[in-house]
Amino acid sequence: MVGIITQILKINNKRIKSILLLGCFFASWGMIGQNADPVTNLMVTEGVANQFTATWTPPAGGDAVTGYNMFIQPQGASGLTYITTISATSTSYVYSGNQGGVNIVDGGVYSITIQTLPDNDGNNYVGVAEFSLNTPDPSAPTGLTITDGNNPNEFILSWDADASAFGGFNVFLNGGSSYIATVSPGVNSFTFTAANGITDGSTYNPAVQALPDGDNSAYANINTPAINSYNWTGGTSTDWNTASNWDRNAVPNSSVLTVNIPSVATNFPTASTAITVKDLVINSGASFIPQASVTGTINYKRELTSNWHLIASPVFSETKQDIISNHVLATGTGSNIGLAPYDNTVASPWQYETSSSMGDLTAGLGYSIKLASAGEVMFSGTPNGNVNLPVSVGMSAFNLIGNPYTSYIDLATFLTANSSKLSEQTAWFWDGTQYLTYNSGSSINIAPGQGFFVSASGSDNVSFSTGDQMHKTSDTFLRQVPIPSFELFVENERVVRSTKVSYVNGKTTGFDNGYDSKMFDGVTQDFGIYTELLSENIGKKLAIQTLPNENIEGLVVPVGLISEEGKEITLSVKTENLSSDLDLYLEDRENNKIINLTKQNYTTVIKRKTNNIGQFYIHASSKKLTANDLVDQTEEVVNFYKSNRNELTITGVQTKAKVYVYNILGKMLITNQLNGVGTSTIDLSELSTGIYIVTLSSTTGDLTKKIILE
User: Fold this and answer.
1) Architecture of domain 8-132
2) Range in 138-142, 186-190, 365-369, 437-441 the model is least confident about
């Protein structure tokens, strides 16, 4: 029989080859009629250079063993080469040097065989199949690529096959963790499916490892785009057919499973030619204008609170039963649920649907909807064309209608075009608590799927034209997307002042024009509070600061105070939409205290007149903080910047420190001792224009920064 290697392991930097039975036909030694059993657990362990060791377990049964015959066979040899006979008490044998005329060298390929004696019937041969001695581990795979699958929830990982990976390849889902499978040598791809946890629209970091990999260094990984999904970015224009407007720099075709338009984009898409998609997902706040036919399903999503909202389906062929079955609607009296059209011909115009209601959502007709809890409502169908919707005067002239498109329409344009059908060019929108009135002089745009009331002049049709579609960012759903923020208040015996910090996706720790606003400094202030930038700080005193909405716990916000000496102040905070597991802590560096402002206010006395940062910092944390947790935060809280031509300002130093100023040749020009917390300034008036290197050295670490004097 001929054996096959099934696996190669490497333990403590030594490869163990699996045991396989080789049929051999050699004369046996021993007394006639006697026969021992073969050995078991025969293994080969690679050792130092040009050496390996065979080990085995002696047979447990049969006649007594009298010894072992050792054989070797180099690759390409036609038969076994006898080496020697060793004692019956042996359980290992070292192969090195010249073995029966066969030289043992690294890189050589060998198989070995051991025969247990006596062996009257020639059946006591056990061998290890061919192995390569002390072969170096293969390199990490190269050429990794990702391809969308042909089925939902599927993608294909491919790599360049490497013949040196004679143990095959391990495949992982997330960068070396989440082991999925081992594929055979020579295979250079693997298909991940829903069984591996794949979901369309998600991103992954799959990895592949070449085997054998004794030191765990033969890994390579790659980040995927959104699986089976093209994402609109709108970075170039509104043109659907411009490749640079898509995250894959290619226009999606009919084979793409999901096309996604995000809530936020530089531009939103207009398709001027016919397109074919399987699923087009338009997220809440986004818009899409089809100027030609669309083949496929459009899924328009809208975020709603748990209040009543007025809506209209922005797509054709959506049904009541689809809305009812796919959403958790609020329940009311009897079998009533939170979905109702408005019928002005009856005394009780709200006609509540039930769980068994059926029928299409008429294009352009408005409905009221109330979800059981805040969430998304989704409409699925195809684009609406020009819409003509009957309106009438019944017990009242009010008719509930709505924008039937996946894009905005201008209210003034709609009212003007339908002026002859309306008793007045007015529309009424529900904001959750009251009706707001707008007319043709109002500069507002009606959001996709937004419902509103008009007053009919008689029985006629109001019309919605596809030519009136537009992209806008204003939103008549009148619900602001929740923004995590906090407002920090300071109070003395006379007045209250505050400063606000918000966390918004895409913003930075530097200055974001339009989102960061400084205090009004046209008059002298003797009491106030502000924050300063976390990076690229140049001493701006901010009344409003906007930070990125990620790694919030890693953002330490410096707080500045304007106050006279000896004043007692109280600090407090109000939070909005922050994660419930985050508390805001105030660090008082002057008094070495840390206070959970989310739980309690903080009162202290200002020891000296101040108009700077350095004493107070705000930390967001999901765990309890103490003063000891903040002893080494040089990089987070220390700032130094050129505050004017002749002065260097340093803030946030916790302990005594030294400042060194060097020229670009490394010559030290200024050294200055700092004595603890607060704000320090260093005179630079003796320096000429040019580039200088500033180093701050303290027990909590060193910081170095380049400054330019002009």
Assistant:
1) Sandwich (2.60)
2) 437-441
